[in-house]
Each structure stands twice: as C-alpha cells, then as structure tokens.
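cron nightly-structures :: item 1 of 1
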Amino acid sequence: MPSGALMQNRFPRHLLVLFACLSCAACSTPAGITPAPQPAPARSEVESTTETAGTPVAGKSDSGEPAAAPAPNKWAEPARQVLLPHCGRCHNGALETSLARAKAVYDLSETAWYARIAPHQYDKMLQRVRGVEAIPEADKSMVERFVGCARDNDCTD
C-alpha cells in the first residue's frame, strides 16, 4: 500500500504533536508558581442536611437562607423505604447515579431528606409514585400519608 494511502486514514502527525503539547501545557502550572490553597467549603455547603446531637438540621432554602428544620413526620422513614428502590437512582446522594437537580429537591440519603421539598413538589412526587405499577397500593398509601402530613399538616392515622 502506498504511503499516501496510509496518510489519508491517519490524523496528520504534526496535529497530533501539537495536541499533545497543548494538553501538557494546559494541565501544568509554570515552574515556581504554586496555586493558592482553596479554603475548605463550609459544612453547610458540603452537606445540606446533617444530624447534630440527634436533631436534624435542614440545608439552605432556594433563597439561600437557612431552611427551617422540617416538622417531625412519622411517615418519613416508611416513605423513604418506599421511594428508595424507585426514586433512589436519582434522589440518593450516596449513589453515583444521583442527579444534582434531583437531590436539590430531596436526597434520600439525608437524615431530614424532605427538608427542601416545596409544597408544589409533593404533587409531582405523588403523581410519579401513583404512576409506578410496581409499587404496591399499601406503599403508595404510605407515601400519600407522608405527603398529607408534610404538606397539609394532616398527621392523623
């Protein structure tokens, strides 16, 4: 095979060398210059919800102000167990598959996982749970009770 035919199927060598040099230059710092150390993020930036002395502490609200701790909800843990297998792929910060925009609404790995849910977002949660045929009716009812308590302050059995 002529050498010209080989060059048609290859990336030009001079461009490969240029790309390699630029890649190395972009990832290094000039000699004698040390990057300034970055301050560690505040604890509230690292974990939006933590547990301190047994009391859940909520993260920041959408406005950036600290969000109030959610009211106790006796159905929060049972609802979490229902949601984990169906919603955890995106809403569980402990998994690599979690999505930032999903965790911004709720993160099932947090102690007070429902602290940032806005009232209108509970409707979407119910809509999605009701649409999953694999969730038994008793479990759907548990999530509905959780939402009733969290959104409507109806915490009766």
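cron nightly-structures :: done
Residues 21-61 have pLDDT under 50 and may be disordered.
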